[in-house]
Amino acid sequence: MILRAQGLTRTFGTAKRPVAALRGVDLEVERGQRLGIVGESGSGKTTLVKLLAGLDRPTAGRVWFDGLDITGLPESRLVGLRSSLQIVFQDPRSSLDPRMKVGDIVTEPLRSRRLRRGLDAVDPHRRLAEVLEAVGLPADSAERYPHEFSGGQRQRIAIARALSCQPQVLVADEPVSALDVSVRAQVINLLSDLVDRQGLTLLFVSHDLGVVRHLCDSVVVLRAGQVVERGSAAEVFEHPSTDYAKALVAAIPRIKQSKA
Amino acid sequence: MTFLEVRDLSVRFGRRQQAAVSGVGFTLDRGERLGLIGESGSGKSVTALAVMGLLPEYAHVGGSIRVRGRELLGLPERELSRVRGEDVSMVFQEPMTALDPTMRAGRQVAEVLRLHHKSGRARERVLELLERVGLDDAERVADAYPHQLSGGQRQRVCLAMALVNSPDLIIFDEPTTALDVTVQARVLGLIDEMLDAEGAGCLFISHDLAVVSQICDHVMVMLDGGVVEAGPVAQVFERPGHPYTAGLVATARLDLVPPGQRLPTVADFYDRGRP
Questions:
Q1: Which fold has domain A3-95+167-246?
Q2: Is the pTM of this model over 0.90?
């Protein structure tokens, strides 16, 4: 088991007016699993992912990564986690620094002094070429800036950056929601390919169960900060047991055959 | 009479005068619903903005845009603003940026009403409309600032603004792209209902074919600033005539591909001839 969470709770707001974003979530992720985390906006998907990634501290509950309790650990002791777990965010227009060249963006994790200690000696140039090729970007992309690329290509850059320090877990937070439907397929194919080839564990956050079903083997459905349903992707998709999951399935956009 | 007639529309920007749109033409009768699909950068939004007369001054617009036979190109701003909001209105993609963050939602709807009708009793009409777009607590929404509303509520407010003067044509530019699938489904249902009730037509822009098929009866496919194909939704989606359309249709049919298998991409059908 690579990730485990127990009783994860996160409350925002003030003591007088607390807002519970996450309420007692238990989760277990096996190595190589492709887990989809679905729910509406505000259901706690991103909060959960931030806690699992050690980017935020839970109000209550614990998180283990690869057997190590990472709850409340100081940044200096999260070196292993930082290189082993990488995140691809929703909107590549805001997740890539517009003033940095693509080559610098992709190799930045390798230049981090903390991360470098946790990594085997890697040659940044070689690694850059490797990951650019892996995500299907031409080698000369390294010398260009993010704004010279389309939305889909920018998401490839973000994925290349995530892969540069050879993570074991890839977290993708709504990675295709900001993209055209026609570009969506390319990015999903790429993620699926990379996860297979590099033996990654995938946490895929989405509000679109149709995409999750395609990419993931298992699913947890979040609602108002709680897990309301979990199971294999096929099971939840074909036989949702809660009304909420049923509504999510029904809302998947489909082409209407003929409009009368 | 044809309500909207666009002929040989071309839009160029900047010093290099690159064409963002060229040779686009279509007509829309009252109550007709036309979908406009294509990838980002294909010229969908520029076409819509040209019809609304909302392109920046440095855009060079050529061709003809007629509403009820009256040419809009070259019309002075004062005349144009009478058409805008009264005959034709628009709903934008991102309701957070379309609404003024410093103004209560109800006042924003009332503003649209007041600009066209100088009557005093705006509040009643605003509340009535907010209720009609499915906001149960219309009073509270009217008194709320945009940031106090959810994405779905904000888009409903925008829809109310578009409907307030009973226009004959509403232009939707990716109205549900910024919303969750569940909220999207509800907002689409509402749009369908409202258009029916008002007997209004629409020009509906989206990159998502599934969304267009929920609303429109006709569809036009744009690529690199031109129209590659147009026709009834069923015909275009079931027997696409252009390989690019075939590619778009294939990428939208996630449900036809067994889970885990490679998804088809546009490039499988149509080679753009660039990397």
A1: Rossmann fold (3.40.50)
A2: no
